[in-house]
UniProtKB/TrEMBL annotation:
Positions of the Glycosyl hydrolase family 13 catalytic domain: 13-417
Keyword Protease: no
Organism from which the protein derives: Halapricum hydrolyticum
Keyword Hydrolase: yes
Record keywords, A-Z: Glycosidase, Hydrolase
Full protein name: Alpha-glucosidase
GO biological process: oligosaccharide catabolic process
Pfam family, one: Alpha-amylase
Family affiliation: Belongs to the glycosyl hydrolase 13 family.
Superkingdom classification of source: Archaea
Molecular function per GO: alpha-amylase activity
PANTHER family xrefs: ALPHA-AMYLASE FAMILY MEMBER, OLIGO-1,6-GLUCOSIDASE 1
Length: 550
């Protein structure tokens, strides 16, 4: 397998609004990130993925971009961004930005000109004339409701697969593609080290906008997920931009399977370095979908991870994650955030770092931050929480927020967006002002200051995992092979030439017998219990994780 720096890296994702506030306005900012650069360096990470800091009216917290070449006032100024880049590079930490080019803000200059049908901009977005009371088709938005809104200025419908303030760009227009190439190259020339590309497989929509007829959510997905010209668009983006730089690219792709991923990845595909898929994040959806909590098993995870670990081509690579700005806290979701918070958080971290691919750690994951309790809908901030719940209330599916509160507390994206818990001081040390979103009530117990000073903490263990992955090339490039074990055990080997590692996990709150393996004198490389046994035949305690050299 060809080696590359981005395969060997550990990435840390920062959601700026919630990371660190430097000026007391309650919103995290770029100067606040600069204040914490030494913290990132001490954690040992190699890359920072920075969620959007571009100029935006914040309909979707920065994923609705008003100007790709400006910094949002709340986040600071371009000079602050330049200082951040310099501070990271001085510590050999690379910077990856978010690329959001499926849609813009409706306040973007392009959309304002397009709605007025100014020369050269009329077809920058998807416009359809027609009855103002009847959308062009039955497509739905990922945020709920129709994917079309009627614009009184142009007297036509425009497409938005997300919020109505996020109109979709028309990639069929070559002028749009050229404009995006210019934006991407502008940032690459400023010295950044790559892009995470938001919902990048939604760029292509078919002409004629046919109705959706295939079951699934949202309606119409069979037409705009991996659309008819998607490979042409992404290959063109690669050839005009990324191919000329030594950068890292990761594409977030909805409804992605392994076979389709291989077509997007590598120089023989569309040039992307790696992808984010969602298979493991849907595992706990109930019969009614996202706003219903379903049952899951360890074998479900085994099946999904094994399919991706063994199904990617030799030239393909995976992006590994549990949490991000769109996912709730993993220790609350797939672990035990009360009695076994340390054990389950570190077990889940061991699995993340044990698989082949580039691991991504989301802010707060390294201290075992948990989901919050949103006592009312007014306490939530996420449009992708508020809008679906409002629709349920409007349509009579529920009578009150209390009926859905437990699911919101389990599922909402706001769980990942509560402020970073730096200390036990007021507002978790995040801000001197009023935070833009509530602070999790457990910040006095769960915070960076306490974690770093403890002899045994989630932070200390993540620090060891980062070091181990840097030291062990087999963890990076080794082949994955599943070891057959009964639930709730999960075990697999990683093999590189003559070196072999074994990852063993007990994904439960009870003691379990170890897998039956005849191996002499294994070496324990890491374990999440202080007195972890080097012997493979010792019982595995609740949420125990071990990595051996065989």
């Amino acid at each position: 397998m060809e080696r590359a720096w981005w395969k060997e890296a550990v990435v840390y994702q920062i959601y700026p609004r919630s990371f660190n506030d430097s000026d007391g306005d309650g919103v995290g900012d770029i100067p606040g990130i600069i204040e914490k650069v030494d913290y990132l360096d001490e954690l040992g990470i190699d890359v920072v993925w920075l969620c959007p800091v571009y100029d935006s009216p914040n309909a979707d917290n920065g994923y609705d971009i008003r100007d790709y070449r400006s910094i949002m006032d709340e986040m600071g100024a371009m000079a602050d961004w330049e200082r951040l880049l310099e501070a990271l590079h001085a510590r050999d930490i690379k910077l990856v930005m978010d690329l959001v080019v499926n849609h813009t803000s409706d306040e973007h200059e392009w959309f304002q000109k397009s709605r007025r049908e100014e020369d050269g901009y009329a077809d920058y977005y998807h416009w359809v004339e027609g009855d103002p009371d009847k959308p062009p088709n039955n497509w739905e938005s990922y945020f709920g409701g129709p994917a079309w809104s009627y614009d009184e200025t142009r007297e036509a419908w425009y497409l938005h697969l997300f919020d109505e303030k996020q109109p979709d760009l028309n990639w069929r227009n070559p002028d749009v593609r050229e404009a995006i190439y210019d934006v991407v190259n502008w940032w690459l020339e400023r010295g950044i080290d790559g892009f995470r590309m938001d919902v990048i497989n939604l760029l292509s929509k078919p002409e004629g906008y046919p109705d959706g007829e295939v079951a699934g959510y949202p309606t119409g997905h069979e037409h705009f997920v991996d659309g008819p010209r998607i490979h042409e668009y992404l290959r063109g983006l690669y050839e005009e931009t990324f191919a000329h730089y030594d950068v890292m690219t990761v594409g977030e792709m909805v409804d992605l399977d392994v076979e389709t991923a291989n077509a997007y990845l590598g120089a023989d595909g569309d040039g992307l370095n790696m992808v984010f898929h969602f298979d493991h994040t849907f595992i706990d959806f109930g019969p009614e979908g996202r706003w219903d909590v379903g049952e899951w098993s360890v074998s479900d995870f085994e099946e999904i991870f094994t399919e991706w670990q063994t199904g990617l081509d030799e030239t393909s690579w995976d992006g590994l994650y549990w949490e991000n700005h769109d996912q709730p806290r993993v220790v609350s979701r797939f672990g035990d955030d009360e009695q076994y918070r340390y054990e389950s958080a570190t077990m889940l971290g061991t699995l993340l770092f044990g698989l082949r691919g580039t691991p991504y750690v989301y802010q707060g994951q390294e201290i075992g931050m948990t989901n919050a309790d949103f006592e009312s809908l007014e306490e939530t901030r996420d449009v992708d929480t508020r809008r679906p719940v409002e629709i349920m209330l409007e349509e009579g599916e529920i009578d009150s927020y209390e009926e859905i509160r437990d699911v919101v507390n389990y599922r909402s994206r706001d769980n990942a967006r509560t402020p970073m818990q730096w200390s036990g001081e007021d507002n978790a040390g995040f801000t001197d002002g009023d935070p833009w979103i509530k602070v999790n009530n457990n910040y006095t117990e769960i915070n960076v200051e306490a974690s770093r000073s403890a002899d045994r903490s989630v932070w200390q263990y993540y620090r060891e995992l980062v070091d181990l992955r840097h030291d062990e090339q087999t963890l990076v490039y080794g082949e994955y092979d599943l070891v057959e074990t009964p639930d709730p055990l999960y075990a697999f080997t990683r093999t590189l030439e003559d070196d072999q590692l074994l990852v063993v996990l007990n994904w439960s709150d009870g003691e379990r017998s170890p897998p039956s393996l005849s191996i002499e004198n294994p070496t324990l490389l890491i374990g999440n219990y202080e007195d972890a046994e080097a012997r493979l035949d010792s019982a595995l305690r609740p949420y125990e994780a071990r990595i051996y050299r065989l």
